[in-house]
Each structure stands twice: as structure tokens, then as C-alpha cells.
Amino acid sequence: MIDFTSTPIMLTLILGAVGVLIPVINVARKEKGSSVYGAITLGALLAAIGFVIYQIITKHVTQSAIFSSNVLVDDKFGSFFAIAMLIVGIMTTVGSFSYMRKRANPAVYYSLILLSSVGMILIAYSTDLVMLFIAWELMSIPTYVLAGYLKKDPSSNEAAIKYFLFGALSSGIIIYGISIAYGLTGSTNIEQVIVGFSKLGPDMMPLAILAVGMFIAGFGFKIGLVPFHMWLPDAYEGAPPTIAALLAAGTKKAGFAAALRVIIMGAIALNLHWAFALAVIAIVTMTVGNLAAIKQRNLTRMLAYSSIGQAGYILIGLSVAPVSPIGIQASLFHILNHSVMKASTFIAVAGIVTTLGVTHIEKIKGLGKRMPITALGLTISLLALAGVPPLNGFWSKLMLFGSAIDAGHTLSWAPYLAVAGVLNSALSLAYYGWIIRKMYFEEGESNKRLKEPKSVIAVMIFSIIFIVGIGIYPDPVIEFAKSAVPIMSGLPVIH
């Protein structure tokens, strides 16, 4: 029996139905302007996030299975990620109003955003490996098309091809991991797989470890962890900047949702020394992302490498989760913060591209005078990404580094994670500061104020309010993140 009033089902119905209807409406309409489709998409996303918030406030998040086969669960963990990804969807849609005004096929563009959002949301609520894989593909396939949306741009075509090839590889790795897990346990339900892993004999344990390794690699591609990050800079640079916002702030977070559902609990059940392995990946990912970002002169490409570095910060909390009670809570807090911060930066780039047609950093000199609101929104977002107080990124990074120090009582290497995080944050501030210096302290070719896209202004204002507001009063979001931490107590562990 299906509970149609449950959060994931209602979100799927709202977003999926509208996503399918938009191309139908496009066929029936004589006028092909993009504003109508953007408004419809925005309405669907607002209705969806409104429903999630209503369910949480009225305590209708039941924590129970939706199907008798237990493939989806209506819990606060899923709702937390749903809110983060819907916010990204809303920011992407609003930021696209101006960007898509004179571009072809707007109905397809907005429809694919909605369908990809359905996949992201279902990933967050999935408790079955097959369901998770289906949702993974539903999220990925529309974004392959969106990454290559600028068909006449060779870099966009290259982005789509690279993204598709690496995406297909990651999907193949994930399905291979699922097949091993099913062969060992006779089930694809995540909880039953974990229980099954805990009962395996020593002769079967290498296969279980291989399965978890397959999941780490598969999800690592989407998240952009080193060494699975090769595709990411080219894909983000070639994609429309609005879609880069969706990829960097949306699909990456869906990858973390899947990782938390599967990898973390599975590794705990196997009692692997996975914490140290994740810590190493976190440090390498942070460092490689930030060092590569410093060398970039293209704004989009710099932000792409910055996204890789940010994934490393989130991994800090996951790597110390078994011994630090605030590890996963801190990671969830930073995931929500990063969703808004990173989406804001790419939407700002979309505004710059729409108005000036440039992405080279040398071309944004004097932007603070020419596009003051866009420049201010970009500046606030960059400072928040660097962890500058009193912005929201400061608090989530402080919690992440604090969780590593707290874990030092049990894990001798954990405090080095905090040291690496602080050093990398300082490193990121160097190249973020370079962008800010170009915008405010160097003269451009002209100081004439330009007309900024209204949709980009709206996103910038929202981002500033969100970043500064949570920076001043972070407690409600921290508590929400705490309530969304997946229950790990009671998991069978092999000793």
C-alpha cells in the first residue's frame, strides 16, 4: 500500500507531473517565450518546498516506510536533503529567467531541471539499493542533456560528453556494488544488506569490502572526490553557469545523501578502518581542489575546483562520525550552507555572462561599480565559502573542525584534519580574495553602471539574507541538522 500523503511521494507527484506537462504545454502554445515555463517551474518548486516544511512543522514526517517493500522512508534525513536540493532548484530556476530569455528550447530546459530534482529527492529518501540506483539515473540523465545545452558551443559539447562518460562509469560501478551486495545477502534493502554483511564469514568478507569500495568510488565520481574528480572542471566550465549551479550545489549533495545512506552505515557494520581512509581522501580532496583553483584564470573553472575542495571539508565530519557525536551533524550543516553559497556564486557568474559575456577574471575588474548587487552577492558567498565570520560558512566549518578535535581523544590522527581544514580555508581565502580585489580595487575599462538581470538580483538578495541570517543566528539550522542525523545506534558490527 502506498501512502500518497508521504513527503517523497507528494514531491515526486508535484515535480514529476509538472516536469512532464511543460513540454506538452509547449507543443500546444503558439508563443514560445521562456517566462511562462520558468514561472511554472518556480511554482512547482515552491509548492514542493512548502509541503516539506509543512510536514516537518506539523510533525507528519513519520520515520516510517512508504511501501510494504520498504524502498523509501519518510524521515527527517530525507527532508533535510530535500530542502537543500529544492532551494538549489529554486535558485537555479530564478537565476535562469534572464539567462534563458533569448535561448532556444526553454520548455525542455525547465522540464529537465524538475525531473532531475525528482531524482535528487528520491535518492535522499531511498532505503533500497535498487530504488537508489533508479533515482540516481533519474537525477543524472537530465543533467547530461543540460550540461550540453549550448549545442553550438564546443566546450559545452565536450562537457556533456565527459560528464556522460564518467557518469556512465560511476553508474556501472554502483550497479556492480549492488550486485555483489545482493549476491552476498539476498537483499537490496540497505538495512538488511548491512545486517547480512555483519553475519558473513571471513571467507566472504573481502567481497563485502569490495562492495563498499564500489559504492565509495561510484558516489565519489558524482561528489567530485579526489581521485574521481577529473571530469568536474571541464563539465562545469562548459555547462551553462546556471546548470553548473545545479550540478555543484544540487547533484553533489545527492551524492552525499547516497553516501550517508549506504557507505557510512555499511562501513560501520563491517568495522573497517574506513575512518582513516576517508580522512586521507578528505585532506587530499581539500588540498588538490584549492591548489588547482589558485592556478585558474577562468572564474567558472576556479569555482569548479573550489567545489572539489569543499567536498573535502564535508568529508571531515563523516570520517570522525563513529567517535564524534557532532561529526555527521556538522557535515549536514555544511551541506545546507554550501548548497546556497555555491549556487549563489554560479548564478552570479550567469549574471556576469548575461550582461558582459565574459568569465575571465581579468574581465571583471571594476565589477563592484558596474554590477554592485551581483558583485556584493558574489563577495558575501565567497567569504562564506572561506569560512569568514560572522557568515554561515564560519559556523559549519567551526563545527567540522571541532568534531575532528573532539575525535582526537580516540583517534590520534583526527586533529590533523582540523589543521588541514584551517590551512586549506586560508588557502581558499587567497584566491577568493583575488576575485574580490579584481571587482572592487582594480579599475575596469569602464565605470558605467550596467543593468543587472532582475532574476540574478533576486537570487543575490536571497543568498545574502540566508548567509548573513544563519551566520548571526545558526541555532535553528544546527538543531534541524541534529534531528536529521541518520540513526546508527543498534547497527550490528563485526568485531
From TrEMBL:
It comes from Candidatus Nitrosotalea okcheonensis. GO terms for biological process: ATP synthesis coupled electron transport. Coiled coil: none annotated. Pfam families: Proton_antipo_M. Residues 126-413 form the NADH:quinone oxidoreductase/Mrp antiporter transmembrane domain. The chain crosses the membrane at residues 6-28, 35-57, 77-100, 107-125, 131-151, 163-184, 204-232, 244-268, 274-293, 313-337, 343-361, 373-393, 413-434, 455-473. InterPro entries: NADH-Q_OxRdtase_suN/2, ND/Mrp_TM. It is a multi-pass membrane protein. It is found in: Membrane. Keywords: Membrane, Transmembrane, Transmembrane helix, Ubiquinone. One of its GO terms (cellular component) is membrane. It comes from the Archaea. This is Putative NADH-ubiquinone/plastoquinone (Complex I). The keyword Glycoprotein does not apply. The keyword Cell membrane does not apply. Its main location: membrane. GO terms for molecular function: NADH dehydrogenase (ubiquinone) activity.
